[in-house]
Amino acid sequence: MKRIAHLGRVIAIRQFTLRGSPRKAVVVKLGIPRKDMQKGGDWLCPIQVRGLGDPTVKHIHGIDAFQALIMALECVRAHLEPRRGQLSWAAGEKGQTGFPRYVPDIFGQKFSMKVNKFIDQEISGFAKAAAKRHRVKL
Fold this sequence. Notes:
Number of strands: 6
Distance between the termini: 60 Å
Radius of gyration: 18 Å
Largest sheet: 6 strands, antiparallel
Helix content: 25-40%
Number of helices: 2
Strand content: 15-25%
């Protein structure tokens, strides 16, 4: 029997405008993480992206509700990435989707710490340069 994916209760929606002729709406919906009754102890978090091809609801799995949610947000980011230069939304600059990259920890703690350290250094450098430009003390 084919499993029918459904969103269930929607907890978040983000709407984008896709540049082109004519301008088109792209809508991302996120459902509540819930236990997957067909996969024992797994959790799933439903997502749907309308306006970029296949609008099928996808169930993103995780070991618990948090992991399912994090993976669902990363899945949305990856789905929007190829078109991000054409997308805009109310709170973002052109090319920003508001879905930041997830730093995976599956490669081990040493890898995660190295990547996070690099990100922290870049953020600190950017903040210092911005403060200097605006003559603000950090």
